Amino acid sequence: MNVTVNDIEVDVDAWPTPQLAAVHELLRQRACELGLLPDGAGEIEVERAIERTLAQEVAVPEPTDEECRRWYEANAQRFRSGDLVCARHILFQITPGSPVPAVRGVAEAALHEIQADPALFEKHAREHSNCPSGANGGNLGQLQRGETVPEFEKAIFGDATLGVLPQLVTTRHGFHIVAIDQRIEGRQVPYELVSAEVAAELRKRSEARALSQYVRVLAGGADISGVELDAAASPLVQ
């Protein structure tokens, strides 16, 4: 795939996606326009110049205490201490070279069988799970927040569901069939103890929105071929 930004060809092989490669080139060119990047600069200098460009041109508003309190109240379940979940799982592992659609298909077929007859969970865990817990019927014991990967934690602590979860849980390790056997509620952590964490989360979200808008503006004024980027015709509002 040939990707160009303002007639400069971009090496997309060095990036996870062509879009990211094009965005990086947009930012590099903007750093040059601002006089922050000399000719012949090396990779480290380019990254530092891009950081200075973003710091100079992208304003990230600080969240107010009122905004933080509203977000805390809307997401109160994220700020609990001592919540415990007794869970079992069956892991269908993804390894380099694994045929992902095929693995997912096997996992979904097993999930459908278990939903029809939950008593089959232990049998499937012993026969198919790629986790050592499979030898114990998939039993993970009691889990608390912070003990599993974020994707798995979100699935088991996201609501009050008991029994076999209706969908596969996808993590960096593969596809999981998960059963929740018991929930032991902890206590709500007061806003005052997590206000800094809430502010940091809102600041991160605000920064992501501001950067996205900034990139769209740059894309709107650039000649880009070989890849689609959202473009904004209006100027960036700082």
TrEMBL record:
Signal peptide: none annotated. Keywords: Isomerase, Rotamase. It comes from the Bacteria. InterPro entries: PPIase_dom_sf, PPIase_PpiC, PrsA_foldase. It catalyses: [protein]-peptidylproline (omega=180) = [protein]-peptidylproline (omega=0). PANTHER family: PEPTIDYL-PROLYL CIS-TRANS ISOMERASE HP_0175-RELATED, PEPTIDYLPROLYL ISOMERASE. This is peptidylprolyl isomerase.
